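Check the record.
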Amino acid sequence: MHIKYEKRNSEIATRILLGESPSKIAQEYGLSISRCSQILHTYCFRIDRDVYGSISNHPECKPKLKELQEYADVFLDDNYGESITLYSPIWRVKGASKKIIYVLECEEICTVGELLKTNLDMLIRSPYIGPVILEEIKNIAERYKHLLAEDGKSGTPINGLTKDDGGPDHHC
């Protein structure tokens, strides 16, 4: 997703979660109300899949607007981007589109640490990854490369976790 759309979508979701009228926001941005609703649900799902999935009164349905607004503090956590660690799942990475998440999971790259330990130039061999997607993946990796230095394990496999608790043998 382009940065300008990511910022716009974040603004739309934030304003709706804070109680502004979706129809007013839709009109301001020149979008349909259903598109604003889709943006809100996608945003909340990306921020915290577990909370999003648990708050609906009907498991087969999306949470209602009022239900999402009740949990606004969870979805509007200012430290969201800062809470990423080497063991964070790829889907929590801010700026990673659904397509990037999908192709990385197809390559069994499920955590930020696995992404940072991967030779990204080798990913171009994947049938799912072209030059544009590879460049986006490299930009994401660049944004989080400081985690390797902070972890003190730069250039070595991530260890200390087992397959069952999200370690390097864990497959998405």
Notes: The chain has two domains: 3-77, 83-165.
